[in-house]
């Protein structure tokens, strides 16, 4: 008589370390964004409407890509991605006073890079990396000054959905690497927008150097 075998239990230490990595990455990403020039320009009104809309469109498209990539793989992340994508879409609908922006929305170079990266992860079956990208983008999406607030985000549930995919040291390292890559891509969206919509009375650049971001992640 054969009984069913229980699924292998995760090492509590690995889970704790994965949660810490997620917390540190999220805090660092939010800090970098709040100090970025694109956020300051949105707050002080020096970024024109087209620039603000373009920035929100990058977040909307990133969430939409991850929503499709993770379809059927994580109910928690999928539900959050669907909700966040709709939230950005409604904000942009109101800003444009029409939904036609979806047919001709701005796609910055960093979003093209993110598209390729997401496709590669999907082709490789790297669900942990996709989940890490989703976790970070969901948390920082609510920080956008013109997106009307964070909405309802259950950070603990999102983190649990990601840590459930981490079983060993190798995957823990993979999680850390992907979160670092996610922060860099998110910051590049702001850099692209500032370059596309330069501030006329200032030579300030919104470029955040790689070294600055890496120091924040340490």
Task: Tell me about this structure.
The protein starts with 11 loop residues before the first helix and ends with a helix. The chain contains 9 helices and no strands. The chain is globular. With 218 residues, it is an all-alpha fold. Keywords: Coiled coil. Residues 158-185 form a coiled coil.
Give average pLDDT, whole number.
84
Q: How many beta-strand elements?
A: 0
Note the beta-strand portion.
Answer: under 5%
In sequence order, what are the helices and strands, one letter per element?
HHHHHHHHH
CA-CA gap between termini: 53 Å
Helix content: 55-70%
**Unreliable runs:** 1-7, 202-210
Q: Tell me the number of helical segments per DSSP (H or I, 4 or more residues long).
A: 9
Radius of gyration: 18 Å
The chain-level structural class is mainly alpha
- Looking at the structure, what is the overall shape? globular
Report on the biggest sheet.
none
Keywords: Coiled coil
What's a quick, concise take on this entry?
This protein is mainly alpha-helical and 218 residues long. It is built from nine helices and no strands.
Task: Identify the notable features of this structure and list them briefly.
218 residues; mainly alpha; 9 helices; 69% helix
Produce the secondary structure layout.
Elements lengths: L11 H24 L1 H8 L4 H21 L5 H22 L12 H16 L2 H15 L13 H9 L5 H28 L13 H8 L1
Helix pairs in contact: 1-6, 1-7, 1-8, 3-4, 3-5, 3-6, 3-8, 4-6, 5-8, 6-7, 6-8
Keywords: Coiled coil
């Amino acid at each position: 008589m054969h009984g069913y075998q229980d699924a292998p239990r995760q090492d509590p230490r690995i889970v704790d370390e994965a949660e810490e990595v997620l917390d540190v990455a999220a805090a660092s990403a939010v800090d970098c964004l709040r100090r970025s020039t694109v956020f300051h320009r949105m707050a002080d009104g020096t970024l024109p409407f087209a620039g603000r809309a373009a920035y929100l469109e990058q977040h909307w498209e990133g969430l939409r890509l991850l929503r499709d990539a993770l379809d059927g793989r994580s109910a928690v992340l999928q539900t959050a991605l669907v909700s966040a994508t709709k939230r950005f879409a409604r904000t942009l609908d109101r800003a444009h006073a029409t939904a036609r922006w979806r047919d001709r929305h701005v796609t910055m170079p960093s979003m093209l890079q993110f598209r390729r990266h997401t496709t590669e992860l999907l082709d490789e079956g790297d669900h942990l990396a996709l989940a890490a990208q989703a976790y970070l983008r969901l948390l920082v999406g609510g920080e956008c000054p013109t997106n009307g607030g964070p909405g309802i985000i259950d950070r603990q549930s999102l983190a649990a959905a990601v840590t459930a995919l981490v079983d060993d040291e190798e995957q823990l390292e993979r999680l850390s690497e992907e979160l670092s890559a996610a922060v860099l891509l998110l910051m590049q969206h702001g850099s692209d927008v500032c370059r596309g919509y330069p501030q006329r009375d200032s030579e300030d650049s919104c470029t955040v150097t790689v070294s600055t971001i890496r120091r924040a992640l340490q």
